[in-house]
UniProtKB/TrEMBL annotation:
SMART domains: PlsC
GO molecular-function term, one example from the UniProt record: 1-acylglycerol-3-phosphate O-acyltransferase activity
Highest taxon of source: Bacteria
Name listed for the protein in its UniProt record: Acyltransferase family protein
Length: 234
């Protein structure tokens, strides 16, 4: 918390939190958010007022110094592709069972290497929804949160994309020319969506075709909720 708040102060980033009353306070919480900047985990932690354990890209756990930074901030880098899903489900499930707040960016790495407009949102991967229906937690809140910047600076970092390919050759986004862009927020709105609650009796329905339907519905709910919040903020 102190590191996140200190970093935002040092960068001169101002944030404005909306719908704070929607943040659950007595349950495990899975935070689902859009993702455009390296500052997203930092600003969400500061805005929600609680340490958040974010799942982050595999390469971040391979780069010296960067690995120390992300783990200090509470993130857990994902494993290589063959073990990624299993590792994510296991690690996040343990954290949620300990009543910690876990954060995910279901758009993946695409928005980080290709700059988009502040109100744009990409398609969501469904891994977080499988986690939500499987984790054995008494009451689990899925909390969609929109990060809507209205004053930002886009800079070209000194990191070529193909350098990252050396750390993670499995990521096709890194096998291209150019530089890794960086979005630096100056002012941004943090809009908390309506929580989606999952009860133990509902988790019993996570089987076969019904499981696929539950996962699709939860994914669509979070994607739609965040898209609506971004549209209202623009």
């Amino acid at each position: 918390m102190q590191i996140s708040q200190g970093l935002l102060t040092a960068l001169g980033t101002r944030m404005f939190l909306h719908n704070e009353d929607r943040i659950p306070t007595r349950s495990a919480v899975l935070v689902v958010s859009n993702h455009r900047s390296f500052l997203d985990p930092v600003i969400l932690t500061a805005a929600l007022g609680h340490p958040i354990r974010f799942a982050c890209h595999h390469y971040m756990g391979q780069v010296p110094v960067l690995k120390d930074v992300v783990t200090t901030l509470g993130a857990f880098p994902l494993q290589e592709p063959t073990q990624r899903s299993q590792h994510f489900l296991h690690q996040a499930s343990q954290l949620l069972q300990n009543q910690e707040m876990v954060g995910v960016f279901p758009e993946g790495a695409q928005p980080m290497v290709k700059v988009t407009s502040p109100n744009h949102i990409g398609s969501f991967h469904r891994g977080f929804a499988h986690l939500a229906w499987r984790v054995p937690v008494e009451n689990l809140a899925i909390l969609p949160v929109a990060i809507a910047a209205f004053d930002e600076q886009i800079i070209r970092s000194g990191i070529p994309l193909r350098l990252l390919n050396w750390f993670d050759p499995s990521e096709p986004l890194f096998d291209r020319p150019g530089w890794h862009p960086m979005v630096l927020y100056k002012r941004t709105n943090i809009l908390v969506g309506r929580p989606y609650w999952i009860k133990p009796q509902q988790q019993q329905q996570y089987r076969g075709k019904q499981a696929r339907e539950l996962v699709a519905n939860l994914t669509a709910y979070c994607e739609s909720e965040i898209a609506n919040l971004l549209q209202k903020s623009s």
